[in-house]
């Protein structure tokens, strides 16, 4: 009799869960059955927090989150969050909710996961932990890496206010900026140089370690506002599939706070500080120059590798040379105002035209020295994209207005300088003018600048290891300045002959 009862219990133990699982009531009873079953076993619990004791993000937590969201049992939970896809509007993503318990099976064993605040809890039978724990975690890593490779999702991180009660300073959203390196407004040769440099960096871990250097690289993007620096940064991040950490210096309370933010960044990331010159010149933050220098290449920078740092400035003239030295800034990329070549690229991309009867007129205006930023010209073309002719005429009017304003400003400056009887400017220009005794010295200075290579161009074989990406227009600009001063000198001579007056 006892054997018959025991057999009935065993059969019920095997068949009841399958029968009950076919109904909602059965689903509830099945969960209770499993709970009772687990009560007969001793368990080990493992916590996986989101941050470590140094407030750095725990990468295992991130991988576990990806893995759990991919499990079929995640969709069977009582509560599941639904989100639309980042790139496809009709794509729905399931994200597990907090305070839910759901099972997973691995190598014939059953484990349970629970989500608590900023923490995952793994429940595993004590007698099975030695057999499956290590291989189970390796399995999670592998699956998570495969998911990341398929998605190639880049995220944008911004530093929040310093609130001690909250874990972590970085808040993130998907980074879906459409820009690429190819859509940038700099010369195509420079774009290829940047791509090659980034690709070489990605393959250089062993090389950097052999040199005893931290595996990181830094870029300076400089030029007037509206020349496409921010969009180019987005293109660089997408090219490398690196997350972007956008540092808001105004929310940093001091040098130590800046270091902690750097510690909380992850590998394969691009750390961006825009308008660095404004913070350095105006001293508008609590961060000192020493703190910024240590952030760029101090001992704290060795706490993380496989990082790219990008800084943007409007001009390098007022920046302390120690900020720009090799090691802190490896690559300089100049973003100039629009010239005729850039204008044609904009017309092709914005208006779909490669040639137009108004192009010669536009080129002639550019040759007089008129210029606008690519953003200004691009906005004109976007507003008038229905009519390329109207768009080009509007660009011409805007360039003429800009040119008239520029020449008027130069004339007022010329008149002021004539009244003062001196020429203000760089010390080198003053010495050259005084030595030559006439404005013809500018031509000599221009030729020496070109001959000695003062108009910097790309040079990867430089001994310093830096290649500067700039447009070599210095000689042309000096010649234009010479022509302007020459014409002013002739007007002055005619006035002196007629009445002995002064400009």
Automatic annotation (TrEMBL):
Organism: Lactuca sativa
Signal peptide: 1-21
Protein name: AAA+ ATPase domain-containing protein
Gene3D superfamilies, sorted: P-loop containing nucleotide triphosphate hydrolases
Residue span, ATPase AAA-type core domain: 219-337
InterPro entries: AAA_N_dom, At3g28540-like_C, ATPase_AAA_core, Mitochondrial_chaperone_BCS1, P-loop_NTPase
Boundaries of every AAA+ ATPase At3g28540-like C-terminal domain copy: 338-404
Span of domain AAA-type ATPase N-terminal: 25-115
